[in-house]
């Protein structure tokens, strides 16, 4: 798919989560980027101009890759939308089974067994 604007990116990310609901994974990465080459950044630094950094966001499910950039102004709105999207699609995760603290402590004591003296 390639590079998208933030709103279409969230729509495509939603469809990725839907496709991989039963089986599969979706990887999302966030990275700070100026969207300029190293040479261009060095030129800006020598002239004293400030570099505007953006957040580069990439997502893939192994078959399809999408990406977008978000500026500092839109970051709060994007994060809120992204958090809502994650909360909606994390329902498929299984809760971890936890032991009672008393049972876990008893199990640890049984596993430890008698202590052997240290050799000197």
UniProtKB/TrEMBL annotation:
Q: InterPro entries this protein is in? A: Signal_recog_particle_SRP14, Signal_recog_particle_SRP9/14
Domain of life here?
Answer: Eukaryota
Per UniProt, subcellular location reads as:
Cytoplasm
Is Ribonucleoprotein included in the keywords of this UniProt record? yes
Q: Where is this region: Disordered?
A: 93-120
Report biased composition (Basic residues) as residue ranges: 93-102
Q: Compositional bias of type Basic and acidic residues: which residue ranges?
A: 103-114
> Which keywords belong to this entry?
Cytoplasm, Ribonucleoprotein, RNA-binding, Signal recognition particle
Whom does it interact with, and what assembly results?
A: Heterodimer with SRP9; binds RNA as heterodimer. Component of a signal recognition particle (SRP) complex that consists of a 7SL RNA molecule of 300 nucleotides and six protein subunits: SRP72, SRP68, SRP54, SRP19, SRP14 and SRP9.
Family under the similarity heading: Belongs to the SRP14 family.
Q: What does this protein do?
A: Component of the signal recognition particle (SRP) complex, a ribonucleoprotein complex that mediates the cotranslational targeting of secretory and membrane proteins to the endoplasmic reticulum (ER). SRP9 together with SRP14 and the Alu portion of the SRP RNA, constitutes the elongation arrest domain of SRP. The complex of SRP9 and SRP14 is required for SRP RNA binding.
- How is this protein named in the record? Signal recognition particle 14 kDa protein
Organism this protein belongs to? Xanthoceras sorbifolium
